[in-house]
Design a protein that fits this description.
CATH superfamily of one domain: Transferase(Phosphotransferase) domain 1
Bound molecules: 2-acetamido-2-deoxy-beta-D-glucopyranose
Number of strands: 44
Shape: globular
Strand content: 15-25%
Largest sheet: 12 strands, mixed
């Protein structure tokens, strides 16, 4: 076929181009410039030595990827050539005396970390942080010699940003409204600048935990209402600004422990809910114009609340004061009222109020004040009120019916506002003026002018030339097919070529582990791992000297124990470069038969398999009787800890969002295993204690001691049953027949644990509930009391419940009794996907993951001869719409 031929040449051409465009970038020249620019020369740096051997520099294949010069007492300027270090991932030069203009870091696509804080830099170029898709951490705080600069809006492209700290750094202008671009952003530090304007609305859809915006020179202004939807907040410093309006309801911010609101212009009554925040230990409110009752906090809360409240101790205010504050509240706490309405006696010089001799409010005059808002029904509580003047403002809403009950009312004047609703009927004795309110007493339905819209369509003639005419089209069907195919080919080719490039960038790196130089192969996709860096293993893997591990674990000290089990003990280790690792030391006794097999199986397997949702092996050690495996360290422990023992470990219960995202991570890890290199690996021991969580609560599957590859010709095999009770698929437990549906079953059990917060098997429960799967299936079958089965720590709004129900269905499906009724992992991933990270753009690794399965070792012409080209070109619509491009594997 002609297409195929054309395609073939197209490929060769692209491969040729690919080969020719290998860049010969010279990091040596850049590093020489850097050395020359710094004084004193950092220790261990010398022009006579290879820069990759310099201290504080790490290279891969001659390319610099880490420069770490923090606190070296160096001065000088950073050379603009720095940006040519195309592989640079991390630059740390904080706490020095570097000065002069900062270079632009634009388009350094590898850059993940940039620490520039505590220096004396003088200026920032416009395109400073442009085009940094992988930037995760940025810190430029305490550079108060910088000339004023603004937060660039192009930063929105750095969607992996987790921490942006630029306090005391001469920033001016507004905070851009781009926070829905940063799903990972946890820390935002912009204190001690000269920011102005209000808090951006997109804060509300962010996951920010620590928000430091205090001490702006002129002060941020506007309300702080958006805080009420920032449910992840834990530390909030907004003090010394110019915020106005009342403190919003923060009852959803259950992690908030430190709230600094002092020195603003906040008004109104402090919401009672603030006193119920479970984690709160630090709060300041002084130097605002807050009113109403003083909030009452527990003794453990460190507080400074100031003295604007009606009493100087907690407790309700006088009823008239309470009613009047409600009136002010419905007017949005206008500053004029706030300033004069303090204390607990409304007759004590409260500006537009007059009282009788008994201390009852008899008149309230709020005319011509430009007030907006509504008329408070609480006015009816001022039972002595005779005269009420609210005319000539912009008041909206109805006239409260309750005003008709005021026994002493003589005159009510509400004319010239924008009031609506029915006109209440007052006793004839009351002088009631309400003219100049356009909508008052009228039955208006807003938004409906029914007649005009419809006919307009008819104005467009039905034979609109623009609407196209299929018969007359000059483009033939074949041509369209051709174009579609061409587009598909281009997409696949571009992807293929970039994948090739990607794979080409694997490099060897020399790591100096305590005097011993070891060679490690680096694959970029392994390193970009939620911002954490781990060298990956070469196929030949690495053996780490026992001395290194002894030092790292403080001679396997008791304090370093992370956990233990039948296999042995896991220790926390710290390598010389600061990297934390988990060191699994097999029990001596376990080393004979079974243990040794598992040890070897795990090494053999993990050296081949790499995936961001599988815990990475960093190395191993065999020394006398000791068998050790070194893994990346997962700081948050196991999923089991977070589901069943969160209180004991001092964790917060997981939110539903976190749970779904963990489930998806696990499903992806298993999916990868099941299809790795077109083979079928079965984990056989999926359970919540084998699911580890990283700092940012991403999950990875661990413990590959039981992994088995299904023989090539069949997808099941028989084996000695191994695994964990409660997670064993029935057919596997009874016959030892293992298919990848064994993992799907166990994953379904994990889903049930995630939903219910109950263990797969819990001996402490009565018989009918102790086996989770049996109990759960009963519930699903009955269909009505799922709500009672859900983990009580989950906050169940309607949307969450709907999502939980869907996942519950999936869990039941995964644990179907008959293995062939269970879905495959690809289906599981597709079901879970929409519940987690809807908006997240795919990173290159994810694209690779999603469209993985390209066999790059197969030579191209062979791939062509090998497969049916006609078939490979017949992409169906479903495949183009984001399903796996399995056919692409044939290219
Ligand atoms: C701002 O940064 C300068 C320089 O690092 C430092 O001396 C000063 O104390 C900082 N100011 C604040 C308020 O932190
Ligand atoms: C509370 O604030 C004080 C003063 O700002 C600080 O010293 C203390 O560490 C804070 N406590 C907590 C738990 O944040
Ligand atoms: C008005 O008075 C009633 C009865 O004392 C009370 O329940 C209500 O909360 C008061 N409303 C306001 C806004 O003060
Ligand atoms: C008056 O209120 C109506 C709704 O009740 C609103 O549509 C209109 O914009 C308001 N007019 C002014 C001048 O505020």
């Amino acid at each position: 076929m002609a297409y195929a031929k054309a395609l073939f040449f197209f490929f060769r051409l692209l491969l040729l181009i690919n080969l020719l465009t290998v860049s010969f970038c010279d990091d040596a020249a850049v590093m020489a410039k850097l050395l020359a620019a710094l004084s004193p020369t950092p220790s261990g740096w010398s022009t006579s030595a290879d820069y990759c051997a310099w201290d504080y520099v790490a290279c891969q294949s001659g390319n610099v990827y880490i420069i770490s010069l923090a606190s070296q007492s160096i001065s000088g300027e950073l050379p603009s050539e720095l940006t040519q270090l195309a592989s640079l991932r991390s630059l740390s030069v904080q706490q020095n005396s570097l000065s002069g203009p900062l270079p632009s870091f634009a388009n350094m696509s590898s850059l993940e970390e940039l620490y520039l804080d505590s220096n004396e830099f003088s200026s920032i170029p416009q395109d400073f942080l442009l085009g940094l898709p992988n930037l995760g951490t940025f810190n430029i705080s305490d550079n108060d010699k910088l000339s004023p600069w603004q937060i660039p809006s192009y930063l929105a492209e750095s969607t992996y940003l987790g921490s942006f700290c630029a306090s005391n750094a001469s920033i001016i202008g507004a905070i851009p409204n781009f926070f829905n671009s940063f799903p990972n952003l946890r820390n935002l530090g912009l204190s001690y600048n000269n920011l102005a304007g209000s808090l951006p609305a997109s804060f509300g859809s962010s996951e920010i935990q620590n928000l430091w915006l205090n001490n702006q020179q002129q002060g941020l202004s506007g309300t702080i209402d958006v805080l009420s939807s920032m449910t992840q907040l834990s530390q909030v410093w907004l003090h010394a600004n110019a915020f106005t309006g009342p403190i919003p309801d923060l009852s959803k911010c259950v992690n908030l422990f430190d709230l600094q609101l002092r020195d603003n212009q906040l008004t109104g009554v402090v919401p009672v809910s603030i006193t119920g925040l479970p984690k709160l230990v630090n709060i300041t409110l002084q130097h605002n114009t807050l009113q109403g009752p003083m909030p009452e906090f527990g003794n453990n809360v460190k507080k400074n609340l100031g003295n604007g409240f009606c009493n100087d101790k907690p407790g309700p205010c006088d009823p008239q004061v309470t009613a009047l504050l409600a009136v002010a509240g419905d007017l949005g706490y206008p500053i004029t009222l706030v300033q004069s309405w303090h204390g607990n006696n409304a007759c004590n010089n409260w500006a537009p109020i007059s009282c009788d001799a008994q201390g009852n409010v008899i008149s309230l005059t709020l005319r011509k004040q430009g007030f907006s808002g509504t008329i408070s029904p609480a006015l009816a509580n001022l039972t002595s009120l005779r005269n009420l003047y609210l005319n000539d403002n912009n008041l909206t809403g109805p006239i409260p019916e309750s005003l008709t009950t005021l026994p002493n009312l003589q005159e009510l004047e509400v004319s010239n506002n924008n009031l609506s609703g029915p006109i209440p009927v007052f006793p004839p004795s009351v002088i009631f003026s309400h003219g100049g309110n356009l909508f008052l007493g009228k039955n208006v339905s807003i938004g409906g002018s029914p007649s005009s819209g419809q006919n307009s369509d008819a104005l467009i003639p039905s034979d609109n030339p623009l609407s196209g005419n299929s018969n007359g089209s000059s483009i033939s069907g074949g041509m369209i097919v051709g174009v579609v195919i061409a587009v598909v080919i281009v997409v696949v080719v571009v992807f293929f070529v970039s994948y090739k490039c990607y794979m080409k960038r694997q490099h060897k790196m020399k790591v100096n582990v305590n005097g011993t130089t070891v060679s490690i192969e680096i694959k970029k996709r392994d390193i970009v791992d939620y911002g954490r860096t781990f060298p990956a293993l070469e196929d030949g893997n690495i053996s780490i000297p026992i001395q290194v591990l002894q030092k790292a674990t403080n001679f396997f000290s008791h304090e370093n124990v992370l956990g233990s089990g039948g296999y042995g003990v896991v220790y926390l280790g710290k390598l010389d470069d600061g990297t934390k690792v988990a060191v699994k030391k097999m029990k001596d006794g376990a080393m004979h038969t079974k243990g040794m097999n598992e040890f070897q199986a795990e090494i053999a397997f993990l050296t081949k398999v790499r995936h961001r949702n599988l815990v990475a092996l960093i190395g191993y050690c065999i020394n006398d009787n000791n068998r050790l495996l070194v893994y990346e360290y997962m700081s948050q422990g196991t999923l089991g800890h977070h589901l069943f023992e969160w209180e004991k470990h001092g964790f917060d219960p997981l939110s539903w969002k976190q749970r779904v995202s963990i489930a998806l991570d696990v499903a992806r890890g298993i999916e990868y295993l099941h299809s790795f290199a077109h083979q079928n690996f079965i984990h056989r021991d999926i359970k919540s204690s084998n699911i580890l969580l990283s700092d940012d609560m991403r999950a990875k599957v661990a413990d590959f001691g039981l992994v088995r590859k299904a023989p090539n010709d069949k997808s099941s095999f028989e084996t000695r049953v191994a695994g964990t009770f409660g997670y064993l698929a029935p057919e596997y437990a009874t016959t030892g027949r293992a298919t990848n549906k064994v993992d799907v079953y166990a994953f379904g059990v994990v889903l049930m644990e995630i939903i219910t917060g109950k263990k797969a098997v819990d001996e402490t429960l009565p018989d009918e509930t102790c086996h989770l799967v049996t109990w759960f299936h009963k519930i699903i079958r009955r269909g009505h009391n799922l709500r009672n089965a859900i983990d009580p720590t989950l906050d169940l709004d309607d949307q969450t419940f709907e999502s939980v129900s869907k996942v519950a269905e999936l869990a039941a499906h995964c644990t179907a009794n008959k293995y062939f009724r269970r879905p495959n992992t690809e289906h599981v991933v597709n079901v879970l996907g929409p519940f987690a990270h809807k908006w997240k753009p795919l990173r290159p690794e994810e694209i690779e993951e999603k469209y993985g399965g390209l066999d790059l070792h197969m030579s191209l012409p062979l791939a062509f001869h090998d497969s049916s080209i006609d078939e490979s070109l017949s992409f169906t619509e479903a495949q183009l719409n984001g399903h796996r491009l399995n056919q692409s594997a044939q290219f």
